[in-house]
Amino acid sequence: MNSTAYAITDLADEQARDEGFWQQVAAQYDVEPGPVNFEYGYFGRMTRAALKDYEQNLAYVNRSNSVYVRQKFDTEDSEFIRADLADLLNVPVREVALTRSASEAVQALIRNYNGLVAGDQVLVSDLDYNSVQTGMRWLAKNRGVEVIEVTHQHPASHDALLQTYRDAFAAHPRLKLVALTYVTHRTGLVMPVKAIAELANAHGIEVILDGAHALGLLDFELADLGVSFAGFNLQKWIGAPLSLGFIYVKQDRLSAIDPDMADERYGADDILGRVPYGTPNIPALMTLPKVFAEHRAMGGAPAKGARLAYLRDLWVTQARTIDGIDVLTPDDPRLYCGITSFRFSRHADQELMVKRLLDEHGIFAVTREGSACGTCIRITPGFTTSAKDVDQLVAALRALA
């Protein structure tokens, strides 16, 4: 990391603790009265200004109908928006295409990956999203490949995560494709993507990256991760309207992804043909330039990620001292972000404890299942979350533990 990068990180860390600054940020959002929300992992809020822009776009498209869409949006504005996205990601515009979600993007990559023959192997883990797991199993039914499923050691460590993949790659020489989740939706564990991709590439294995929770939460350079295929959301930490994500395919690997359902609208070298065809949420897409500008003005991923990690540390540091609370996400700064999960170790029914958090303490959270560590409660702060809200969470944990 160079001196400029250190300066940016130090500034973001200092700003993360500035409650006055984040009160100003929070004031840009309208919040419905009710429980304290610690479930921002599902989707994010639009600011008041972005929502107004979205509503105006919706009204305009409704008024102008296909006249605007055919004459201007399809031919000019959509490409301007895609170029703005590429600029945000610091990748060539030809390597990205907008989709309805990260899931749609990743499923399209799995479905259309043409580098497999019967007898090959593909790999998923217990931490991958359900639709990613089922997508890889779909390959087994339709392409005759074998699905290798690995379970990650708990508690997780950087070395153990790498060793799991190192062992799997060595034990299964017919592996050709691996699904990898950047930030797992279950516990918030951050996978060491670049290191795992290097291991995969050394074995001739390609990676499809599920970045659904990562963009805007983690500070990374997409082109430096060492993956050629990925899907991301714009509706979580970037602040876009619901129904927006994008697909990423490195240009020199585009030929490995077939046009979706043999789509012939675009040339063989155009990524736009690799995503499902249909009428998109045009008013939402029109709102993206406003959303991207706000994201940059807030300080981008360095500022957002530092704030959410700070709020996470506020409650986790205290929760680790509470007898009866088991924090499941490690404290290695390489492996966590703003999302972290825990369980009440003295209570078998975590779903019941989520209900008690809400009914008795006004805390809204959700359970997640499917990982080796078992059912857990996910805590995800957002940009309107204050240190006072975290104090309320910690008080609730102490009372219920």
UniProtKB/TrEMBL annotation:
<dbReference type="GO" id="GO:0045439">
    <property type="term" value="F:isopenicillin-N epimerase activity"/>
</dbReference>
<dbReference type="Pfam" id="PF00266">
    <property type="entry name" value="Aminotran_5"/>
</dbReference>
<dbReference type="InterPro" id="IPR000192">
    <property type="entry name" value="Aminotrans_V_dom"/>
</dbReference>
<dbReference type="InterPro" id="IPR015422">
    <property type="entry name" value="PyrdxlP-dep_Trfase_small"/>
</dbReference>
<feature type="domain" description="Aminotransferase class V">
    <location>
        <begin position="50"/>
        <end position="393"/>
    </location>
</feature>
<dbReference type="InterPro" id="IPR015421">
    <property type="entry name" value="PyrdxlP-dep_Trfase_major"/>
</dbReference>
<keyword id="KW-0663">Pyridoxal phosphate</keyword>
<dbReference type="InterPro" id="IPR015424">
    <property type="entry name" value="PyrdxlP-dep_Trfase"/>
</dbReference>
<protein>
    <submittedName>
        <fullName>Isopenicillin N epimerase</fullName>
        <ecNumber>5.1.1.17</ecNumber>
    </submittedName>
</protein>
<keyword id="KW-0413">Isomerase</keyword>
